[in-house]
Structure of C-type cytochrome:
Amino acid sequence: MKKVIHRKLSKNILGLGLIVLLIFTASLSAQEGDPAKGKSLFNANCAACHQLDKKMTGPALRNVEARLADEQGLDRAWIYDWVHNSSGVIKSGDAYGNKVYNEYGGAAMTAFPQLSEKDIDDILAYTAEVKKEVPAAAATAAAGTAAGATTGGISNELVLGALAVLFALLAIGLILVNKTLRRFAEAQGVELPEASKRMPLWKAFVKNQFLMLVSAIFLLLAGAYFVYGYFMQVGVDQGYQPVQPIHFSHKIHAGDNGIDCKYCHSSARVSKTSGIPSVNVCMNCHKSIYEYNGETTAEYTKEFYDAQIKKLYAAAGWDDANQKYTGDSHPVKWVRIHNLPDFVYFNHSQHVSVAGVECQTCHGPVETMEVMYQHAPLTMGWCIDCHRTTNVKVEDNAYYEKIHEELSKKYGVDKLTAAQMGGLECGKCHY
């Protein structure tokens, strides 16, 4: 009987131990979390104020759980409470909570009651991941690939060199043919005329009065044409592309990120001018965007773009390390690209808000421009041609309801151009 009792007791202990082990393992695995899900949750809820390895609006969160446990003796339960209701933790008199609150200017962290403990576990698992360093070999390979792409095709120098060799061979061939024909003529007893007995071509041309008259008229007309073309280009700066004090890529901002032109040039909707964005407009985004992580080229590298952001910080007087303004700011001296003469009146709001003209109509495909340049000539003829051919957006536009009705009857059309609405009158642009 004793053997049976001991056997059952051992069996029960083994079973109980197995159950405890399973519960502990499940609890441990539940606490570890899923880093992949945590990354998604981090980007959706935390990335606006936090980075893993850099202090921003809030502290850096790499290994935050381990740091809090080692330095402050705080466990995961404290993190749950802080994420769900940081204001409540602060009001409870928690020492570390109040320290963080005061350190970051008295700005309490947004409460996230919608995040479950499992969600927070996933986020903590993501923050606990080891930072991945980009191998130098990979960067070198990428640079080599970019260099290979630029040198893979046949260069212009090679083509020009081949053409030069071809023309040289042709010239040598003609000289040899000339010598051969002369030898053949001498062998046959054919006398060749002496060069001194032939009249030079230019003398024959000068003695022909008709050719001289036609040439003079042609030269006068050609000269007048080129002089007229030169003077007509005075003040026309199409293609003007100055170097700016801070490199601003419209391709990245308006193209890749899809930022509306009127977010930066907000006065274009309500004012005569489009306005120059203030540095504060840039800092609305770049307080959090301190580095570039998009596509690069051999000319415009990540280091180049990051340096431009540093220039912006210097202009704004922003201390990125301590996430605060120093007060030492200065204006950015942007170089103006588009400039109409002083005697020309142009109103952005009339074209953008009332007429519904897209920015690209005048400024070209800015969403593709790495460096901004003047796309259109901005001449009087160019403006008049647009007024003659462009239909004004009158549908659902209260500004034009009455005039549209009257002019539609007058011209018998449903669509109206700016010219039909008086857009060719001198006083519209010159007064």
